[in-house]
Amino acid sequence: SDEEQKCPEFTDLNIGNALSGTTLHVQLLLYTRENHDCAEKLIEHNVAASQFLNTTKKSVFVIHGFRPTGSPPVWLGDMKRLLLSSEDVNLIIVDWNRGATTVNYIAAVENCWKVAEILKNYVDQMLVGGASLDSMHMIGVSLGAHVAGFVGQKYNGKFGRITGLDPAGPSFNREPPERRLDRTDAQFVDVIHSDINVLGFKKPLGTIDFYPNGGMDQPGCPKTFFSG
Hints:
The protein is α/β, with parallel strands linked by helices. The protein has one domain (2-219): Alpha/Beta hydrolase fold, catalytic domain (Rossmann fold, 3-Layer(aba) Sandwich). It has helices at residues 2-6, 15-20, 76-86, 97-100, 105-128, 143-154, and strands spanning 25-31, 40-41, 59-63, 90-96, 136-141, 161-165, 188-192, 208-210. Strands 2-1-4-3-5-6-7-8 form an eight-stranded mixed sheet, sandwiched between helices. Helix 5 (105-128) crosses helix 6 (143-154).
């Protein structure tokens, strides 16, 4: 319908997609205080065509992680509202649900590098349009934390800030710094470890690392990892 055309949504998949696997497709959904309820999809090879992107403002990218059930992350709406209410930013939701939705975790891990390549293309265009690396902040959840690290690495640590929320442990625990999120990936890297006893990364990764409740199970959170 016209309404769907006007307001692009985060890709909604299901367990069937996870079982069959998904081919990587990345879309960037821009929200600002001018369009907080209706995303604008950034055009991959023409970011400058955006109606709402203001490169003089800070840009915050939110990158989700592994999606074994295919559904949009339950926290996405709350995070969008909180970020836009606290600061007048370009809020860019990085939707790589096609690529993260699979029961094969290793396939999703391999896609992280490709997502980072695609994001670099968008960031490069924003820089040409007047944005600065200083005013860019990537918030990555789970695998998304490592994606953010890979992007930051491509700019030799000049990226403003990276926040890693529960960075993924499996496939990354024994990797060298250049193959995971690391404190050299941005000017400031803050990390919250919240599941180190199961799927999270145990060791410090950032300029500063927080371990709420010892970094293990969090009160009020479901016991199953499918809820992420």
